[in-house]
Amino acid sequence: MTSLFALVDCNNFFVSCERVFDPGLEGRPVVVLSNNDGCVIARSNEAKALGLKMGQPAFEVQDLIQRHQVQVFSSNYELYGDMSARVVETLSQFSPNLEVYSIDESFLDLGNLYKTDLQAYAKEIKATVKQWLGMPVAVGVAPTKTLAKIANRLSKKSAKAEGALVLTDKRHIEEALKRTEAGDVWGIGRRYARKLQGFGVHTAWDLRNVSDSFARKHLTVVGLRTVRELRGEPCIDLELMLQVKKNICTSRSFGQAITDLEEVGEALTTHVVRCATKLRKQKSRAGAMTVFCMTSRFAAEGEVYSNCRTVYFDTPTDSEPELIRHALKALREIYRPGFRYRKTGLLLLDLVPASSVQLSILDTVDREKHGRLMETLDNLRERFGHSSVKYAAQGTEERWKLRQESLSPRYTTRLEDLIRAR
DNA sequence: TCTGGGGTCCTAGGACCC
DNA sequence: TCTGGGGTCCTAGGACCC
Fold first, then answer.
1. Has residue A403 been placed in a domain?
2. Which end of chain A is least crowded, N or C, by CB within 10 Å?
3. pLDDT reading at A140 higher than 70
4. Helix/strand/coil for A237
5. Residues at the strand C interface (CB under 7 A)?
């Protein structure tokens, strides 16, 4: 074997972030809710044991939460994002080649470390992150990313592995695949799992043994790669560079239903600002924008409405005044009075590098002036916070604001939220 | 009453061209 | 009467991920 990957993922990441700063939560059931305190999106092991499910609506589990005194938190992405960056920094000690796969997972290229004691190395990674940051992680090591995912998963289930499992031995891999359901393989979702069931493919081992043509036919080329990875053939490379996004989306549900066009527009304007900020951060400009607004999907029949409108720009842009103007115009076109809106947002599409924008002779915008304005705003917001400078169109009442009833302090990024010791 | 948000990739099929 | 064949581009929809 020539390749070797480690997948390091943080256990119950959002819950663990809360616990780092409030050790009293150790050993107790804890959950973190999605934006707007809508669904359960992270659970401590104790909360899992109570039967709280991932993605379950919070109101459905109110009783359970009260009865067992489950500690509840609103999402605190400022805290989680910062903790995530610290974990990545710590992990980069262990390999020069690292892919940040998600907020709580990284792949490490262990390239030619076959000669080292991998088990000891995996344990050392785990111990270091725990010691430096108080963050519990699990480590899976294997010759492909897909197998590393499986190793990681099993490391949490096996008492013997204690959160660090190496899968390089052929017989160990076979055993691991036989103990893993096909639907738990990375890249096999609910739909494919059900389809595979119909063909008698139940375990990861069954999936490993299907023919290439079967995989290609029923799971597309993506699934074929997965099957090959299960056999130990690396097909999915490490992505070292932060990928430039091809689309950028910003949307939020409202804390309460909104009926007024003006107010929906205020929320949308705020989303445009956030989205355009992300756009400029990766030095892109957008050639098009889709604006949408909708009621709750769960509203009664006749009260459900959802629509979108796409606008194409003559010249790709990153200018907020321009984007806001187009967004509000599109919103006016799709807004229908009489509905109780729950959500609005936008996608920026057809992104191109800012450096390669072709100027149009029909252009009526003073791009240089807008550019200087955007730079100034970015600097101000960076320094004084995101809402330090606002457009009049964003309004001041913010009745649409998220519900966040149980937000913890931003311990690591706000001076006023620093933890106090006596 | 209350149900998250942000992405990627692939394929099939239609439009269009010569 | 007999109504081609091959290629590209675009989009909507479906699948997946965290």
1. no
2. C
3. yes
4. coil
5. A 101-105, 149, 185-193
Contact between A78 and A14 under an 8 Å Cβ cutoff? The reply is: no
Q: Which of A14-23, A294-303, A345-354 has the lowest mean pLDDT?
A: A294-303
User: Is the pLDDT confidence value at A162 over 80?
Assistant: yes
Q: What is the pLDDT at residue A43?
A: 96
CATH of the domain at A188: 3.30.70.270
DSSP 8-state symbol, A407: P
Same domain membership, residue A342 and residue A269: yes
Output the CA torsion sign for A123, A125, A128, A129: negative
> Which percentage of chain A shows pLDDT scores above 90?
83
Beta strand residue intervals within A88-196, DSSP E? 98-102, 105-109, 137-142, 164-166
> pLDDT higher for A364 or A338?
A338
Q: Which pLDDT belongs to residue A1?
A: 56
Strand B nucleotides where any atom sits below 7 Å of a protein CB: 1-11
Distance from residue A233's CA to nucleotide C7's C1', rounded to whole Å: 34
> Exposure string (b/e) for A11-36, b if CB count within 10 Å is 16 or more?
ebbbbbbbbbbbeebeeebbbbbbbb
CATH code where residue A46 lies:
3.40.1170.60
Q: For residue A368, what are the contacts with CB-CB under 8 A and spacing of at least 6?
A: none
Q: CA angle, A92 as apex, A86 and A280 as ends, to 5°?
A: 65
In this structure, the answer to whether residues A69 and A158 fall within a common structural domain is: no
Q: Domain range spanning residue A166?
A: 5-10+79-231
Nucleotide closest to residue A340 (CA–C1'):
B1
Between A47 and A357, the higher pLDDT residue: A47
Q: What is the pLDDT of residue A396?
A: 87
User: What residues have CB less than 8 Å from A300, skipping those under 6 apart?
Assistant: none
- Pair (A255, A224) in one structural domain: no
Give the closest residue to B2 (Cα–C1′). A59
Nucleotide nearest to A41 (CA to C1'): B4
Average pLDDT over residues A39-54: 95
pLDDT recorded at residue A385: 84
pLDDT at A314 over 90: no
* A287 CA from C7 C1′ (Å): 27
Same-domain pairing of A58 and A120: no
Residue A201 CB: number of other CB atoms within 10 A? 22
